[in-house]
Amino acid sequence: MHKRYIGFLALGLAFGVTASPDPQGIDLGGGKLIPQLSVSTKHDDNIFSQSTSEESDTITSIKPSLQWLQEKDTTSLAVTYSGDYGKYWDNSDDDYDDHTVSFDGAFAASEYARVKVGASYGWLHDNRGEGSSEGINALSRGDPDEYEISRAGIDLDLGRESAMLGFRLSASQDDIEYQNNRNETVFRDRDEGYVAGRVYLNLSGGKTKLFAQASEKDISYDEDPLLGGKLDSDESGYSVGIEWEATGKTTGMISIGEVEKEFDSAARGEDDINTWDAEITWSPRTYSHFVFGASSAPRETNGTGNFIEAQDTSITWIHGWSDILNSTITLARGNDEYANDAREDDRDLISVGISYDWKRWITVGASYQYQERDSNQAQFDYEKNVILINFDMSL
């Protein structure tokens, strides 16, 4: 099982979402049309993530997806629609309907060049108590923050897989525009442009790669905040690392580096942030996997400080008790430091989930999750328990 798939499976199981074991498609236009449907119901005992006066509710979510996929030789094309329709049983103002349409393509122009392109447009939301409405701000909002996000990217890999030296170029552009609660959300509208170049050295026949990478990210906000100066900034990143596949019983990637974040406003200045990223999968058995993850990186602020220096660590155990029964246990811890502000948060998560392939076309899952945020500013503290049952279906 590829490490990226294991990582996504771990995250999905941790939140009670599983993938249909063997989705089937309908032949159409030289490709396949693949419909899938996920239906879940969860009970959340603190839906607004509040430190006091917690409010509970039960939320039912229906997630349809429809993908047209064409694969031929070294070329693949996919057009996908994903929806998420949420119904709160007691708080109808928090009902939502999210939609994402995306296009992805991959092809090998020659044995020396492989190209991946992608674009998507999403109509999404932040629940009350998340994003710019976290803490007591959630109580001042009448409904969730809704936003539109467009993304486009390209990844160019140069060099034969068997060659010792290779190059990878990546570029992407994101545009985020909030649609409501504009008195608060207007300051979150922004464009983010990213470009990175990587040089890698193949070892062990391409199963192990050493790499060095340089990146540049430009973040531009549509509106300036009321206080503190413009949030527009440039991030220059440098990192070195190693990635490997199927070496013994482990697969993984480790990188360390630094990001220099320089604001356009002299009032906000600049900061140097040590960064790292690791994802290691250890599989002592073909049916049992341990996934370790750790990262440190800057994130954009939701209104407090200049930016967030976020550190995260997690370990997940995925175990197949039989061909149709799987379980997962996840432990995660995070820390957020707010640059140019005294706020600091510690985050903890415990999750236990199980999935059962009832039929070839339907998987039943259940999970329990505990979340806690402990902040040195009491208004951002919260604890919550979430119990979820879900059904994932395909043809």
Describe the structure.
- This protein has helices at residues 3-14, 182-185; strands spanning 26-28, 31-44, 57-72, 75-88, 96-110, 113-126, 145-158, 165-178, 190-203, 208-221, 233-247, 250-263, 270-285, 288-300, 307-320, 325-338, 344-359, 362-375, 382-394.
- The protein starts with a helix and ends with a strand.
- It is built from two helices and 19 strands.
- Strand 18 (362-375) and strand 19 form a beta hairpin.
- The chain has an 18-stranded antiparallel beta barrel.
- The chain is mainly beta and 395 residues long.
- It has a single domain (3-394), classed as Porin.
- The model is unreliable at 1-20 (pLDDT under 50).
- 4% of the residues lie in helices and 66% in strands.
- It is globular.
**Elements, N to C (H/E):** HEEEEEEEEHEEEEEEEEEEE
Structural class: mainly beta
CATH architecture: Beta Barrel
Given the C-alpha coordinates, what overall shape results?
globular
What does the main sheet amount to? 18 strands, antiparallel, barrel
Rounded to the nearest angstrom, the distance between the terminal CA atoms is 23 Å
The low-confidence parts are 1-20
CATH topology: Porin
The domain tally reads 1
Count of separate DSSP helical elements: 2
Please tell me how large the radius of gyration is: 22 Å
Helix content: under 10%
Give me the secondary-structure topology.
Blueprint: H1 3-14, E1 26-28, E2 31-44, E3 57-72, E4 75-88, E5 96-110, E6 113-126, E7 145-158, E8 165-178, H2 182-185, E9 190-203, E10 208-221, E11 233-247, E12 250-263, E13 270-285, E14 288-300, E15 307-320, E16 325-338, E17 344-359, E18 362-375, E19 382-394
Antiparallel strand pairs: 1-2, 2-3, 2-19, 3-4, 4-5, 5-6, 6-7, 7-8, 8-9, 9-10, 10-11, 11-12, 12-13, 13-14, 14-15, 15-16, 16-17, 17-18, 18-19
